[in-house]
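Students often ask why inverse folding is considered easier than folding. One informal answer: many sequences map to the same fold, so there is more than one right answer. In these notes we will look at a single instance of the problem. The structure comes first.
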């Protein structure tokens, strides 16, 4: 049962990251992304750098 909860949490975190990446691609402000996803400012900055490196 605990393993299932762990997988669920990982899936939810992965989805937050995907949503944040999409929001960044739409040029939304970091603060809005933090509020909408629950990710930290540092996580959002890291994702932004990741996307810039991919471009």
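Output (designed amino acids):
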């Amino acid at each position: 049962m605990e393993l299932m909860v762990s997988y669920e949490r990982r899936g939810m975190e992965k989805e937050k990251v995907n949503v944040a990446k999409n929001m960044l691609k739409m040029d939304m402000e970091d603060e809005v992304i933090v509020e909408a996803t629950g990710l930290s400012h540092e996580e959002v900055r890291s994702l932004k750098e990741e996307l810039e490196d991919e471009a």
